[in-house]
Hints:
Blueprint: H1 29-39, H2 41-51, H3 56-63, H4 67-74, H5 82-91, E1 119-120, E2 129-133, E3 144-150, E4 171-178, E5 180-185, E6 188-193, E7 197-201, E8 206-210, E9 216-223, H6 228-236
Antiparallel strand pairs: 1-2, 2-3, 3-9, 4-7, 4-9, 5-6, 5-8
Helix pairs in contact: 3-4
Amino acid sequence: MATTNIIPGESWHPDIHPVPEPSNVQVDGEAVESIILEKRIGERIKHLRIRKSMGLVELGRHTGLSASFLSQLETGRVVPTLRNLTRIAMVFSKDLSYFFEPEPQTLFRVHRGKDRVRLPQSGVPDPSYYFESLGYMVPDRQLDPYLAEFVPGKAGPGAGQDPRPHQHFGCEFLFVLSGALEIRHGANTHRVEQGDAIYFDASTVHSYACCGDTPATALIVTLQQPTPALEANSSRGPSTAPALRPRSLPGNALRPQSAKPAVTRNAG
């Protein structure tokens, strides 16, 4: 067994252990097999083959390996040599490291109804709608889904005030779950009822208002990315349209973009 010699006058750290001599190290065979199984090399080979709609015989022709041997590779009954694994990697235009890198984790989040937070329209003393984020637990999300409830008599037809307009980058999708809504998009006004759906450019000023005697509910999904039309206009030169900036939802608190817009990205 190796020993540690401490030279007088030098400091010694008890948490630093001497490296054992190579002759005293023995790799555990079960540990080796466990590491190989964790890489799931056979499953990765099968995944590549199926994605290319390739059979074992065809893969065998490309690699020079028999179909039976490839079958044993995919089921984990044999372990490929680096030479054979390289042949397979070249067929699928993959680097050899593909079979040893950690597998990416698939995104999957469950948002329980009891955990959602109901928030009012921001920037107004008497909100005309309330909403709940359906994707707040997803980091760096590409779209934002919301469940919104619009209160009758607060804004729109027959109310004492007009709905406050807003705009943002990207597109927006709205599906009416119950009731009726008046949607203003630019200079146009549209009435939508239960079962109706709309998809529109959210960089155009828009607003919503309940136009019935009962509350209206809707599923709203926003995609916070510049639309091709907006990018094309910006490439032509300066525009007189209001500047648009992508916004985010900081936790459970919402902040209006300015004094004029009524809603942040959360409800449109």
